[in-house]
Amino acid sequence: MIGKLESTALMLEGFTQKTKQIVLKKISKNPTRELREKIGNFMEFFAIEPVNLDPYGILNKLSHLAELVEDRFKDFSKEVAPKMNPEEQASLVAGLSGAITMNQIAKIVRHFVETVKKTKNLQLALVLQMQVPFIEKIAKAVLNGTETMTNGWPMGDSIGPMVASYLIGDSRGKEIADTIVVRKKIKGRNVIILKAKGPGGRLGKPWEIIQREVKRGGIAKIISIDAAGKLEGEKTGDVAEGIGVAMGSFYRAFIENIVTEKKIPVESIAIKMAPEEAIMNMHPDVIKAVPRVIHLVEQNIKNTKRKGTIIIMGVGNTSGVGNDKKSAEAAEKKANEIAKMMKRREEQEQKKGWFGF
Length: 357
Known about the structure:
This protein is an alpha/beta fold. Helix content is 57%, strand content 14%. The protein has twelve helices and seven strands.
């Protein structure tokens, strides 16, 4: 049992080195020792959660902390890759977050493996052994996701922004807080389309725009589009409609608070995928869902009886997805190419065994 756990720990540590190499390769073909040390040190980055014993004001505390983390990542990206353009630096920031996650997974597993060795605790070894298949599955997804985000390829979580870009068409908007804001008419109704600025790996701040627009008044409805975790047995790319804000982040609360106060309807469209598929390169079955989602959005707009402007929010990391229809088509083509490449690589790795590490 310890042999198997040790093997898993070594594999995860190999994955950590692989994510580090992915990031380094993106920055420089011949990274210096200093650059390697900087990336290695940054992979130990952490953020301490604010005290939540007194829940009042916790959202503002979390928001402040998240902004500090984001600024730190951006500053580090500019420091190690000053010649990269803003879109490449945004993708590098996303890739660094993946490398840090992989490093933490490997360290935690190593901690428990060494604890089992030290204490000879059979129960702890059994619990860890039962979790190994799930840990390995997540780790492989994080490895893939790090490569995807670092290189600015479309990922599963980019489906919301991709749909938004198709809806934007050739319309032009403006950028506010890393978020693209486009005003146009769809099915005879005034709509505001929101998505993170692409094609760099960004999440944007759509909640800030929504808060401002709702306070101004005249909002009839908000429609959010996002990736959603599927259950085992459900098909990747299935589409579902629901009520509420489709957004995984705690920032959802800022939207919920203002729409509750103003009694504004909030509806959502979810594109199903496994949690690990959300951070990996976009699956072809997810891409196939785009026309259906666009149709549902248009039908929703057409059936809205309440007067006013409708806000459409494409939620998610816009990695690899630009800000108009032409960019969305290019992203779709790129995602299909990457999917084929990944399939060939997987077949080769299965022949080699243990992913070549």
